[in-house]
From TrEMBL:
Domain of life: Bacteria
Record protein name field: Sensory rhodopsin transducer
Length: 126
């Protein structure tokens, strides 16, 4: 693909990781995911800042999405500079040095009747 698709700055205004889950792990672990698509011919270096309603932001969390690949990044798995707290509202801003596409997905498995939400993130007008 000669022209990458996407934007370099995205926002997910809604984030929440439940403190517990039901069902087998890791498939049914309650989680938030940023699905990152890099359609370009170059690796995308991504930084994520996480914002809270009652404390200073945390980050950047750094990940690389290889060229012509996708990465489904669970916020539950972010650990450096610190883990994302459970049962806490948060938002995130995702910046990349290459245009990427970002989709937000949540699995809430606190009860046997699971809930799944997925939506495209907000793309800024770079």
């Amino acid at each position: 693909m000669s022209q990458p698709i996407g934007k370099t700055r995205w926002a997910i205004a809604e984030g929440y990781i439940p403190a517990y889950s039901t069902g087998p792990e890791p498939q049914f672990t309650s989680h938030e995911t940023a699905c990152l698509l890099n359609s370009s011919d170059q690796d995308a270096h991504v930084e994520i800042m996480v914002y809270f309603n009652d404390r200073e932001p945390v980050g950047p969390y750094r990940v690389t999405v290889p060229a012509r690949r996708t990465k489904h990044l669970r916020f539950n798995d972010l650990s450096e500079p610190e883990p994302i707290p459970r049962d806490t509202d948060y938002a995130s801003v995702i910046e990349s040095d290459m245009p990427i596409v970002v989709q937000h997905t949540r699995l809430d498995s606190r009860q046997a009747e699971n809930a799944l939400l997925s939506t495209i993130a907000y793309a800024s007008n770079d």
